[in-house]
């Protein structure tokens, strides 16, 4: 009987460890970015795959291009095609330079410095570990195993609730690695109301210059 209980406990321990392991890896990657642990980031992130998955979304956001997954199937105008062709190349070069084990912590520190000294936002790093984990978990919108070897997690940006990060981890060797990262801009009914209210009486919600740019697309 004792042997059976021991085996059952061991199985439960292995299952619990398996379920917890991708969450631990995701948290450890987050902490490594915050503390500049480039060696850990090198081991736990598939950088070529990450850059390939991130580039289209960063380019779309930076160049203000429509999201092909949510926008209507409309043929892009000349201006949009020009931005997509020339602008994406510049975005790709920036990603190659900064989305690296050394560059990602530097980007985080630059953003943190802006929040601390210019925006005046509090530093969560001074909070207790349990509180930081609690706040991070509150921003998780989806976390699930899509197969025995892949795990996906969607998390809202801490400073912009309309921005969501979609991460995909996969077992690589003896542990989990971050393979893909995407960025989505969320559009809610509440946001639409705020944007409409902020038009300040402009015709159709746009200024003349905005309408002229829209017509040129």
Number of beta-strand segments: 4
Outline the biggest β-sheet: 4 strands, antiparallel
User: Overall pLDDT, averaged?
Assistant: 79
Helix segment tally: 8
* Widest sheet: strand ordering: 1-2-3-4
Rg, rounded, reads 21 Å
Low-confidence stretches: 189-217
Structural class by SSE content:
alpha+beta
N to C succession of SSEs: HHHHHHEEEEHH
State the share of residues found in helices, binned by percent: 55-70%
Q: What is the overall shape?
A: globular
Can you give a write-up of this model?
The protein is of the alpha+beta class. It has a 4-stranded antiparallel β-sheet. The protein contains 8 helices and 4 strands, in the order H-H-H-H-H-H-E-E-E-E-H-H. It starts with a helix and ends with a helix. Helix 1 crosses helix 2 (38-44). A hairpin with a 2-residue loop joins strand 3 and strand 4. The radius of gyration is 21 Å and the shape is globular. It has helices at residues 2-35, 38-44, 47-62, 78-98, 103-119, 129-138, 189-197, 208-216; strands at 140-145, 150-156, 163-172, 175-185.
